């Protein structure tokens, strides 16, 4: 009865009143202001929830889309699962945005945060590895001891809450489990398991916050007949929905790496010594599998390789190395089977080995024409990965939208191309859906300048990166640093680093040069913000999910239009498939994808009503090619220019740039 009364009281709220200048949001949320765009989105979300329908909602930066979906979701009184793109955004949603919405509504609903199992300490693996005492790095024992102390006092066991212990510390590997290594109900710590406690809380909560990786893991596990990770719900809200198709492809596909094989063989070797010391054949088989996995990587050049299955014939040592790996895996699996009943961990290794066998066999099988996929291989410096990626996830994802009566809300700042959602609908298999585009409330013509320099060489020429740096230097001078320079390739980033280092030294500039890979992303961003005049060089991971409001970021420079590399095995296969089906691959797939990615990169610049800045795009195809207009129309309506003088006046006049028509201006 209490639960019903809560629902009824929440229903009494009116969205127009809530989002009005003197409503509940204004009363309890510091800095909040009324925006018609936010109300329009909230009303659309409310309708979709009431009708159990699908809504695609693109909300420009500054709309306040999070509150626009949280408020009607809380008012609905039903079970809600909210998924977002990353763990960092998940934590922000749970610890900041959701409490704000509950304060505005005085809502008593129960909420829960649920992450993948690798985010929680596993008592079994932690204690086993502390007792074993075998570590790859000499710092691991000290860190693992600190993790053990954290686990003794923590109520949630979430590694993000372990103060003073880096989330990327290698010791975490010894303190967590994976789906493959979890012992489940056979574990002696099952009743105190942090993962089980988090799932129990999620089942009992009315609002559950997850991330896309966990969300799709749940869909994948349901396909495999395993118990659901996420509870059945009335409403599913997918934020950062532009990422969904690529994330779904990971989970609806298959991947097997030599790192997985080495982990499996290493665990088997250690367990054989402790739990099956009278059976030396198992230890020898594990050692043989380690050698076979390493030999498989050595069958390819040291430099990273990406190759389709059909192209692998160029590597002479590959077939024999794969055969040896398969044979070694089969031998170890048979021996594990003979010892599996001796110990729960040995049984787990046997089950993992069977799963790896099945994945390897699947990868080697001919493709099913009904579910086309691309089989491909990639190498890193130390590992090799075998992938089988579906060419389309539309049929699989689209089926989820209609399998039960639920509302689905898909939202992001970048879902459409000029208001057209065809690209997203096609990739996700979405048929009927309500669509909504609400513009940003920002005054882009006043707050920003879009600058496309003249005279730069074509982006595929050897001198292009040199020209980008040369064109960027006068902009960095008038902006006094305070810039992101975003690259579409790591090779260009590395080259630009050397050029900028020399240029800064020659000019006597003291702008700190921060480079992706030199430190964790969050640390780089903290240093950027603290410095006040830094220049940060980044690639894909800095194109989205970075919020740096204020004057500390005043320039975003993008080297090239972010077209996917056509020689990437998955991209090439999708282009070929689109052409085979009678489509126009460039217009239907490559161009819309580039437009959405470009919007994401551009969106790093203006993050509040008071921000000002210059977006510099060094790819002249934006202004010179016929398709450039589509890309331009996808970008915020900033003042547009091709002349450096306009940029200089912008900074000299404190952002009071002259408003020009939306065509690419010459002044």
Please specify the SSE layout and strand pairing.
Elements: H1 2-11, H2 15-18, H3 24-28, H4 36-51, E1 54-59, H5 65-76, E2 80-84, H6 87-105, E3 111-113, H7 123-132, H8 140-153, H9 194-204, E4 207-211, H10 212-223, E5 235-238, H11 244-252, E6 254-257, H12 258-275, H13 280-298, E7 306-308, H14 318-339, H15 344-364, E8 373-379, E9 384-390, H16 394-402, E10 407-412, H17 422-428, E11 434-438, H18 444-447, E12 448-451, H19 464-479, E13 483-486, H20 490-507, E14 513-515, H21 521-531, E15 535-538, E16 555-558, H22 569-580, H23 585-602, E17 613-617, H24 621-624, H25 628-634, E18 639-641, H26 644-652
Parallel strand pairs: 1-10, 1-11, 2-4, 2-5, 3-4, 5-10, 12-17, 12-18, 13-15, 13-16, 14-15, 16-17
Antiparallel strand pairs: 6-9, 7-8, 8-9
Helix pairs in contact: 4-5, 5-6, 7-8, 10-11, 12-13, 12-15, 13-14, 14-15, 16-17, 19-20, 19-26, 22-23
Supply database-style keywords.
667 residues; 7-stranded parallel β-sheet; 26 helices
Largest sheet: 7 strands, parallel
Low-confidence stretches are: 1-10, 655-667
Can you count the helices? 26
Backbone shape: globular
Cα distance spanning the termini: 67 Å
Specify Rg, calculated over alpha carbons. Answer: 27 Å
Level of helix content?
A: 40-55%
Physical arrangement of strands within the biggest beta sheet: 3-4-2-5-10-1-11
Number of strands: 18
What is the SS-derived class? alpha/beta
């Amino acid at each position: 009865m209490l639960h019903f009364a809560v629902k009824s009281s929440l229903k009494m709220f009116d969205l127009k009143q809530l989002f009005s200048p003197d409503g509940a949001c204004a009363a309890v949320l510091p800095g909040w202001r009324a925006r018609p765009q936010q109300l329009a989105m909230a009303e659309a979300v409310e309708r979709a929830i009431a009708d159990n329908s699908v809504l695609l909602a693109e909300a420009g930066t500054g709309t306040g889309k999070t509150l626009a979906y949280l408020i009607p979701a809380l008012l609905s009184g039903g079970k809600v699962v909210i998924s977002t793109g990353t763990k960092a955004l998940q934590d922000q949603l749970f610890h900041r945005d959701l409490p704000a919405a509950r304060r505005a509504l005085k809502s008593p609903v129960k909420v829960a945060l649920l992450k993948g199992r690798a985010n929680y300490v596993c008592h079994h693996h932690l204690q086993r590895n502390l007792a074993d005492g075998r570590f790859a790095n000499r710092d691991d024992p000290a860190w693992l001891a600190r993790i053990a102390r954290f686990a003794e006092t923590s109520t949630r066991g979430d590694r993000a809450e372990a103060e003073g212990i880096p989330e990327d510390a290698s010791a975490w590997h010894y303190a967590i489990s994976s789906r493959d290594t979890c012992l489940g109900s056979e574990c002696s710590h099952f009743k105190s398991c942090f993962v089980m406690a988090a799932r129990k809380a999620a089942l009992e909560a009315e609002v559950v916050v997850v991330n896309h990786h966990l969300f799709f893991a749940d869909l994948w596990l349901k396909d495999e007949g395993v118990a659901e990770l996420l509870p059945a719900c009335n409403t599913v809200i997918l934020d950062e929905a532009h990422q969904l198709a690529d994330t779904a492809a990971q989970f609806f596909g298959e991947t097997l790496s030599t790192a997985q094989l080495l982990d499996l063989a290493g665990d088997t070797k250690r367990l054989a010594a402790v739990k099956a010391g009278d059976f030396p054949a198992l230890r020898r088989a594990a050692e043989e599998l380690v050698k076979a996995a390493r030999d498989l990587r050595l069958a390819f050049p040291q430099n990273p390789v990406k190759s389709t299955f059909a192209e692998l014939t160029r590597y002479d040592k590959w077939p024999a190395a794969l055969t040896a790996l398969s044979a070694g895996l089969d031998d170890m699996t048979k021996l594990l089977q003979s010892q599996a009943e001796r110990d729960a961990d040995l049984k787990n290794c046997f089950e993992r080995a069977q799963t790896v066998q099945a994945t390897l066999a699947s990868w080697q099988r001919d493709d099913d024409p009904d579910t086309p996929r691309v089989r491909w291989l990639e190498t890193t410096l130390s590992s090799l990965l075998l992938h089988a990626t579906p060419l389309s996830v539309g049929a699989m994802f689209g089926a989820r939208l209609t399998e039960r009566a639920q509302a689905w809300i898909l939202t992001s700042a970048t879902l459409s191309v000029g208001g057209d959602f065809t690209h997203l609908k096609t990739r996700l298999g979405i048929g009927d859906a309500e669509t909504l585009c609400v513009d940003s409330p920002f005054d882009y013509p006043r707050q920003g300048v879009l600058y496309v320099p003249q005279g730069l060489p074509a982006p595929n020429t050897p001198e292009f990166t040199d020209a980008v740096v040369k064109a960027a230097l006068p902009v960095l001078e008038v902006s006094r640093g305070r810039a992101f320079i975003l690259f579409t390739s790591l090779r260009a980033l590395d080259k630009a680093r050397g050029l900028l280092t020399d240029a800064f030294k020659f000019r006597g500039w003291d702008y700190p040069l921060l480079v992706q890979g030199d430190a964790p992303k969050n640390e780089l961003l903290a240093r950027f913000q603290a410095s006040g005049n830094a220049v940060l060089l980044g690639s894909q991971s800095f194109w989205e999910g970075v919020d740096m409001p204020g004057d500390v970021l005043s320039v975003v420079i993008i080297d090239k239009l972010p077209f996917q590399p056509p020689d990437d095995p998955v991209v090439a296969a999708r282009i070929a498939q689109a052409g085979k089906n009678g489509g126009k691959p460039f217009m239907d797939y490559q161009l819309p994808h580039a437009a959405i990615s470009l919007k994401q990169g551009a969106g790093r610049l203006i993050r509040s009503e008071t921000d000002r800045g210059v977006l510099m795009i060094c790819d002249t195809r934006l202004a010179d090619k016929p398709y450039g207009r589509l890309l331009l129309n996808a970008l915020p309506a900033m003042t547009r220019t091709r002349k450096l003088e306009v940029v200089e006046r912008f900074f000299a006049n404190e952002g009071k740039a002259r408003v020009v028509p939306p065509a690419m201006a010459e002044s």
